[in-house]
Design goal:
Elements: H1 3-16, H2 25-38, H3 40-51, H4 55-81, E1 84-85, E2 96-103, E3 106-110, H5 118-129, E4 133-137, H6 143-156, H7 169-177, E5 182-186, H8 189-200, E6 206-209, E7 214-218, H9 224-236, E8 246-251, H10 256-271, H11 287-295, E9 301-304, E10 308-309, E11 314-315, E12 318-321, E13 338-343, H12 347-356, E14 362-366, H13 370-379, E15 384-387, E16 408-409, H14 414-420, E17 422-429, H15 447-450
Parallel strand pairs: 3-4, 3-5, 5-6, 7-8, 7-14, 8-13, 12-13, 14-15
Antiparallel strand pairs: 1-2, 2-17, 6-16, 9-12, 10-11
Helix pairs in contact: 2-4, 3-4, 3-6, 4-5, 4-14, 5-14, 9-10
Bound molecules: nicotinamide-adenine-dinucleotide.
Nicotinamide-adenine-dinucleotide (NAD) is lined by residues 110-114, 119, 137, 139-141, 168-169, 172-173, 186-188, 191, 194, 209-211, 243, 333, 335, 361, 403, 408.
């Protein structure tokens, strides 16, 4: 029996003892909270080694949100998990009819590397809250973080119910051969298809948190200084390696130069004249991704930035101007610090352009004019929509977070995680009395009996 098979087996056996179900799961969540507090330093150090993020950056973008998520779950779990009475019809008036959220069983969480704690532990929180056993597979790309997770999680939460399995593609493939009750995958769309294919063999439901190109439309009627500051933050945080980073800008040709100027100004303010030595500016995760991103520059004009250093996986915050739709940088999600600007002649053209692409994970619009915001909202589709800011919808856990079409399926955060990883069991409890009320449904079905 493989190591992966053994871990799944143990998790299933632990689930079958029933110990993940009672509200004792709140204790497991509190233990996870304790881990985040007590081991802050080890977590941040590992993230720094993997992605070059500062300690403050790691806390701000990774663990702070998790603490909020745990608090929400702990505070509301009793209410979320309680059976909900529903409306009855004439035939069931004297019965008890309700929806009871129940655990699904054993959930597989496959994490990605770009926010290695956030995207692995956040689904784990929802899965624990919903009463499941969970096999956790952190991304192998973040070597140090995966090791810290493997070492620390068993010290704080039930190691049989929530085992960590580390490894790369072969180990993930072995895991995917096992039977799960749900698979929660975060990563790219190509692998997302492989996950769904493997899940289909066992008819296992999936949540796919994928990526893609998130467009950013800037209207002429807009405070460009503020807009570009927010866009620069959204783009260059984590060196552009954010699933909801604004991928490219669409704007009128007449404001292109101002946009370049204002983004450049914000970059200076955030990361100084020399981002390479600035502790708040990260690095590309590895040389494979460094080369992938650099190759995208081949047929575009660099307006700002472009400096790079392969040995340090450094690419400066870069702006590309007059980019054509068929340029290399427009063919796939950038996932790096390049910001292409595509001049576009009208809002109609922008909407047409957005709708020609796959449905994005996030869609950004900057305008003072509500009509523009509403037109973008009403005439397009995307996982989430944000007007006049970037990224912050991720932090609002009363909003569902997830993609649509090529950017994913299913959603999570807050109660949405709990619902996504629960089975909503419809229950109808009748008494063995009042049989007379049922006479109409039993054959023979005569018009006389039915009163027709
Ligand atoms: P990755 O390489 O870390 O892969 C993610 C997981 O898939 C890992 O656990 C890995 O072991 C597994 N995997 C990789 N190749 C596999 C294969 N051939 N078969 C089976 N399993 C395999 O991450 P990535 O895909 O490079 O992540 C970046 C992508 O993730 C981007 O597209 C980004 O937009 C997206 N993303 C989405 C979200 C979201 O919440 N929607 C969050 C973060 C990242």
């Amino acid at each position: 029996m493989s190591r992966e098979q053994k871990a799944v087996d143990r998790a299933r056996k632990a689930f079958e003892t029933g110990r993940s179900k009672p509200l004792e799961r709140i204790r497991q969540l509190k233990n996870l909270q304790r881990l985040l507090t007590e081991r802050k330093k080890e977590i941040a150090d590992a993230i720094k080694k993997d992605l070059g993020k500062s300690e403050e950056g790691a806390q701000l973008y990774e663990t702070l949100g998790l603490e909020g998520e745990i608090n929400t779950a702990v505070r509301n779990l009793k209410e979320w998990a309680a059976p909900r009475p529903v409306q009855k019809n004439l035939l069931t008036l004297s019965d008890t009819v309700y929806i009871r959220p129940e655990p699904l069983g054993v959930v597989l969480v496959l994490g990605a590397w770009n926010y290695p704690w956030a995207v692995t532990i956040q689904p784990l929180i929802g899965a624990i809250a919903a009463g499941n056993a969970v096999v956790i597979k952190p991304s192998e790309v973040c070597v140090h973080t995966a090791k810290v997770m493997e070492d620390l999680l068993p010290l704080y939460i039930d190691k049989e119910l929530y085992p960590v399995v580390t490894g790369g593609v072969p180990e993930t493939q072995e895991l995917l051969r096992q039977r799960f009750d749900h698979i929660f995958y975060t990563g790219n769309s190509m692998v997302g298809k492989l996950i769904m294919e493997a899940a289909a063999k066992h008819l296992t439901p999936v949540t796919l948190e994928l990526g893609g190109k998130s467009p950013c439309y800037i209207d002429r009627n807009c405070d460009l200084t503020i807009a570009c500051r927010r866009i620069a933050w959204g783009k260059y945080t984590n060196c552009g390696q954010t699933c909801i980073a604004p991928d490219y800008i669409l704007c009128d040709p007449s404001i292109q130069n101002r946009v370049i100027e204002e983004v450049q100004k914000a970059v200076k303010e955030f990361y100084t004249d020399d981002p390479k030595t600035c502790p708040d500016y990260g690095r590309i995760i590895n040389q494979r991704h460094f080369r992938r991103i650099m190759a995208m520059l081949a047929d575009s004009t660099v307006a700002v930035g472009g400096d790079n250093d392969e040995s340090d996986c450094y690419i400066a915050p870069t702006i590309l101007k007059d980019v054509k739709p068929d340029a290399k940088v427009m063919q796939e999600e950038i996932f790096g610090p390049l910001l292409p600007i595509l001049p576009i002649s009208s809002l109609d053209e922008a909407i047409k352009f957005i709708n020609k692409g796959e449905k994005p994970l996030a869609l950004y619009v900057f305008s003072h004019d509500n009509k523009v915001v509403n037109r973008i909202r009403d005439e397009t589709s995307s996982g989430g929509l944000l007007a006049n800011d970037c990224l912050v919808h991720f932090s609002v856990n009363s909003l569902p977070f997830g993609g649509v079409g090529n950017s994913g399926m299913g959603c999570y955060h807050g109660k949405f995680s709990f619902d996504q990883l629960s089975h909503q069991r419809g229950c109808l409890i009748k008494q063995l009395k009042m049989e007379g009320m049922n006479s109409m449904r039993y054959p023979p079905h005569t018009a006389k009996k039915l009163g027709w």
